[in-house]
Write a structure and sequence with these properties.
With 282 residues, the chain is an alpha/beta fold. It is built from eleven helices and ten strands.
């Protein structure tokens, strides 16, 4: 179940003197089961791009395919698509609106046409998967902590059992512990459900640790789509985009420049650990 974009463009105020490309001529394919990090400076087109992937926005040019079907073709069932491609917006707690947590998470499955019993079953399973205990089910979502609200909002999407989960800055505004909880949860869902994940993030360390491929947008254009190692190898160019590499990458490069026998393209702490053990054993 892949997502493919072909020559995708989105233009604001097309045909006027204010014409601006939010996304310009982007083509890519995201393979089933992959974990993709999407990075770019503020205003690079990240949020615009992901809203095309489940049909919330319609492109000015080009199209998007899900399982080789054009999602913008006449008669295509976009409601069904959104059950397969779930999108969690930035600050997803603003999506919470029901009186209690369980009812809120049941909303998506019920909207898909599932029975009350099946919707409840899916909601309970999803809440357990994101680490919400049963006693929280009857509480108002507005009484929860920031991290709990974020997990409940994610549960509301995964209760629809999407094959693809897109998250727009899911850790924004959270403290370090909250960030680790959310990203650990997403990583676990990716492994256990073989779910395709697209993670929009401003944290280079996070995408280096969790993603197997990274997509880099610069002024609406696709600059890179490769492994973290290959993308961060170009950290000097990324800096011209208003981005950076993980801190460990800069440290490894400095050590290599100082004459140490170390891989300068390290991008995660685990890779650094393996390199240190290699050096100590050599």
């Amino acid at each position: 179940m892949s997502i493919r974009a072909e020559h995708l463009s989105y233009i604001y105020n097309e045909g006027t003197v204010m014409e601006t490309y939010a996304v310009r001529d982007i083509s890519f394919e995201i393979a089933d089961g992959s974990f993709v990090g999407l990075i770019g400076h503020t205003g690079s087109g990240k949020s615009t791009l992901i809203q095309h992937l489940n049909g919330l926005m319609k492109p000015s040019r080009g199209t998007v395919y899900y399982n080789d079907e054009d999602i913008f073709a006449e008669g295509y069932d976009l409601k069904r698509l959104r059950g397969h491609v779930g999108l969690v917006f930035q600050y997803p707690e603003y999506q919470l609106f029901e009186e209690d947590v369980l009812t809120d998470v049941m909303f998506g499955p019920k909207n898909m046409g599932l029975s009350e019993e099946e919707a409840r079953k899916r909601a309970v399973e999803a809440l357990h998967q994101v680490g919400i205990e049963d006693e929280v089910f009857v509480r108002s979502p507005f009484e929860l902590s920031g991290g709990q609200k974020r997990r409940v909002a994610v549960a509301g999407v995964i209760a629809m059992e999407p094959a693809v989960l897109i998250l727009d800055e899911p850790t924004a505004g959270l403290d370090p512990e909250g960030r680790r909880e959310i990203l650990g949860m997403v990583s676990r869902l990716h492994r256990e459900r073989q779910m395709t994940v697209i993670l929009v993030s401003h944290s280079m360390d996070d995408v280096a640790e969790y993603a197997d491929r990274i997509m880099v947008l610069n002024h609406g254009e696709l600059a890179y789509f490769d492994t973290p190692r290959e993308v961060f190898r170009h950290h000097k160019e990324l800096e011209t985009f208003g981005l950076s590499a993980p801190e460990i990458t800069y440290l490894a490069a400095e050590l290599a420049d100082a004459g140490f026998d170390i891989d300068r393209d390290i991008s995660t702490v685990e890779e650094a650990k393996a390199e240190i053990l290699r050096i100590m054993g050599s």
